[in-house]
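Fold it.
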Amino acid sequence: MRVLVIGGDGYCGWATALHLSQKGHEVGILDSLVRRFWDSQLGADTLTPIASIQQRIQRWKDLTGKSIDLFIGDITDYAFLSQSMRQFQPDSIVHFGEQRSAPFSMIDREHAVLTQVNNVVGNLNLLYAMKEDFPDSHLVKLGTMGEYGTPNIDIEEGYITIEHNGRKDTLPYPKQPGSFYHLSKVHDSHNIHFACKMWGLRATDLNQGVVYGVLTDETGMDEMLINRLDYDGVFGTALNRFCIQAAIGHPLTVYGKGGQTRGFLDIRDTVRCIELAIANPAEAGKFRVFNQFTELFSIGDLATMVQKAGSTLGLKVEIDHLENPRIELEEHYFNAKNTNLLDLGLQPHFLSDSLLDSLLNFAKKYQDRVDYQQILPKVSWRR
């Protein structure tokens, strides 16, 4: 197929673009490169040194003989988006092109507005571009498990059947987002659902858990293809932060009680999930939802796992509990379903098997690049 990866210079997008190219798809990357600009604004950087997108793509072609088309621009610019899609003629569109950090969206009013405009307007533009020129293309959109929040009932995959006053219906699962970023993803989901119903578009929403790992088969082929590893207080994940802290001898910073539970998956499973969704497209007019994660862990669980894994490398790892900068339940029920992708053939990797190779060893290798000013939280939900 011809697959356009929007946001293909980012963490999930880059690994996905290479994986799909290696599998024989004709791949295009569309990206504004704004993620690199935000790093410079925040004074942060990925732990792993990443080359420019042009150098990355050229190196991929040198190694494999496979070309990747590149379109640099912003999808909030409808004319650019429409022209690029007409030029590339995608069969499938993988949409990673959104601001993806909850802390970023909670810095202040400006960042909240930027997040919502970038994400909601860009997504709406894409839906209209599909309606006008590519109504048969399949949209694979990155959602987030954070749309659901932490309800005191099981989390289904997108929909829930409810019986009320003697009547029954299947409805979109209630959303309880915890940041302006997560709210933007909820708006996206509603807009995509509406577009499928009104215009007969086909879409798969992948409500993804927290992704970890640097290595895929493709990004491990060459140093110039290496993926990001973000650890700062805005774009870094708790697991990444713990691994970097373990490598440099800093106590692991658990927010609050550490009972916050989330879904997790290896980056190798992310790219496989995209591949499966593309190979098994939604029907016309259908908005389907897959919960994309493989394991559930609390923040406290992650800290303990990193502590144990660090000891095998001779690291003395301590755990500290900080005041939680976020407003969230620190102890809660969390049981989410994730059978749809497994039914399509996903064979998961597990954190216990990849924590050393795909995280801690990279943290040790590049520990000289660690900026100690970036490993503590800088954004508070209470401001």
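The mean pLDDT is 97.
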